[in-house]
Amino acid sequence: MSFPVPTMPAPPVGVVGLGQLGGSLAAALVAAGRTVTGWDVDPAAREAAAARGVRIDRELSGVVVLAVPLPAMAGALDGLTVAEDATITDLGSVKLPVLAALRAAFGGRYVGGHPMCGTERSGHAAVDPGLFSGARWALCLEPDTELPRWLRVAEVALAAGAEVVPVTAAEHDDAVAAISHLPHLLAAALAAAAAEAGPLALALAAGSFRDGTRVIASDPAFVTAMVEGNAGPTAAALDRLQAQLARPWPDLVAAGHAVRAGQPAGRRTVRVPLDRPALLALGRTGGAVNRRLAAFVEGWVPDVG
Amino acid sequence: MSFPVPTMPAPPVGVVGLGQLGGSLAAALVAAGRTVTGWDVDPAAREAAAARGVRIDRELSGVVVLAVPLPAMAGALDGLTVAEDATITDLGSVKLPVLAALRAAFGGRYVGGHPMCGTERSGHAAVDPGLFSGARWALCLEPDTELPRWLRVAEVALAAGAEVVPVTAAEHDDAVAAISHLPHLLAAALAAAAAEAGPLALALAAGSFRDGTRVIASDPAFVTAMVEGNAGPTAAALDRLQAQLARPWPDLVAAGHAVRAGQPAGRRTVRVPLDRPALLALGRTGGAVNRRLAAFVEGWVPDVG
């Protein structure tokens, strides 16, 4: 088989925003022996990253990761210098709006990404180099995405310990509406409704309430930007949920239990050609690119085993 | 202050049903130096309990705890011999139906209870002597409940490591609809709706989905009996949730976050007379009886410090 990407050393990585996600990614890559440059508007975040071995600089090249909140995405590179051939990616939780904001500036050099991790905590104090270990990382392959750049970003995600799920931005936004944005709204509604029920209810709250409301401990501005940035798919996911809630309770309980009991599915290894249709088909069936598959590109990614 | 209960040694405890809840309670009490007799229709559960120091016998006295699933509650004592002056309590997750089922047979000797713990696992393999440690344990004080018997059951809950929340059965059922039964239905709906969204959505599912669906991993028969046994309050809680979901999302997110961020409230110690109105008022304001308050009754509960 021929390699569709040129043989090249692992590119440097630049991380803009050194909070929980960006700081954790930078720390994970430094721990993996990579050269990482980083920047954050907050001096304390810069200092914390520097202490973990991140080079602090406003000049970025290679794979440049925008790890800033959604409302700050369009202006994330203001005041920074980015190499002309850099590949731009981001960690935002909604992909179509970021694609719309960045496509004009970067065209096929932009590869949207979203690692499915993070906790209700935020900021550089919540940095954890193991945050991405075993996590799924959605990576967008639009019709105009340059595949070698997609592979470069995929390699960064793999180096951080994640598995890469090839998706389109639209597929991603529909999927995360169901499994992330809707759960955030439900957690909020559950907490607010329980408070209405009174102090006795909150005093009796235990495991099922704690679990069902944990994500709404996240920064409300972050959650609001996320659900409003993905309003259409989230509203559609809410409609699907309402239809489920209208079922007879024994049917609903049985259906929900079957889904939860069916997870996680057994894993099998498949070899997938490195082209867009095959990669997207892998993602649609619930598959992910892991380190074994990445061996296909080891000619240009010498540090991935 | 005068003690409303006679000075007496800690009574023996009999546990009917030695699965996760009953087996854990028996094990916790044995570990606390108490004499515990137990029974289960399953020989394997009896053997597991015996190995933890529980005396296996069909004759029960003192505080007799019915730790069987809701559908089995009415017949839990079939084939067993219970002392005529025994105090009967249970661990069922709904209280009005159990009260209706047991009041005729036991009158004021029945004290409904519900420890707010347990996991999605079940059966004697899930026994954990620390299960009740720090948990809230709702204990029903109806107008005809004999207060000395209520205190006896409260002492058992405290000895297992829990804190006791005085409630009426109706108050309990309303409260748990909001913080337990509704979360079970939501978890089921969330899981079923995500499955409808397809394999990609399930493959991307991470923390918020796992947390939001964990409780529906529980035995569906158990969940169905619980929500159908508390249908009125659960439907009312669902209505309150729907009203929350109809709010503008930024308002909903802010309201939910405020509730979650406000938990747990700071604790302060109050002294409460051991009478029904004062105890119920304590429960309604989110308070609980803990070991310090139990010192009031140490004359008859020599092992509570």
UniProtKB/TrEMBL annotation, chains A, B:
Q: Which UniProt keywords apply?
A: Oxidoreductase
Q: Which GO terms describe its biological process?
A: tyrosine biosynthetic process
The answer to keyword Transmembrane helix applying to this record is no
Where is each Prephenate/arogenate dehydrogenase domain found?
11-287
Keyword match Oxidoreductase: yes
Superkingdom of the source species: Bacteria
* One Pfam family linked to the record: PDH_N
SUPFAM superfamilies membership:
6-phosphogluconate dehydrogenase C-terminal domain-like, NAD(P)-binding Rossmann-fold domains
**GO molecular function terms here?**
NAD+ binding; prephenate dehydrogenase (NAD+) activity; prephenate dehydrogenase (NADP+) activity
InterPro entries tied to this protein? 6-PGluconate_DH-like_C_sf (IPR008927), D-isomer_DH_CS1 (IPR029752), NAD(P)-bd_dom_sf (IPR036291), PDH_C (IPR046825), PDH_N (IPR046826), Preph/Arog_dehydrog (IPR050812), Prephen_DH (IPR003099)
PROSITE patterns (alphabetical): D_2_HYDROXYACID_DH_1, PDH_ADH
Report the sequence similarity comment from the record. Answer: Belongs to the prephenate/arogenate dehydrogenase family.
User: What is the protein named?
Assistant: Prephenate dehydrogenase
- Species name: Geodermatophilus ruber
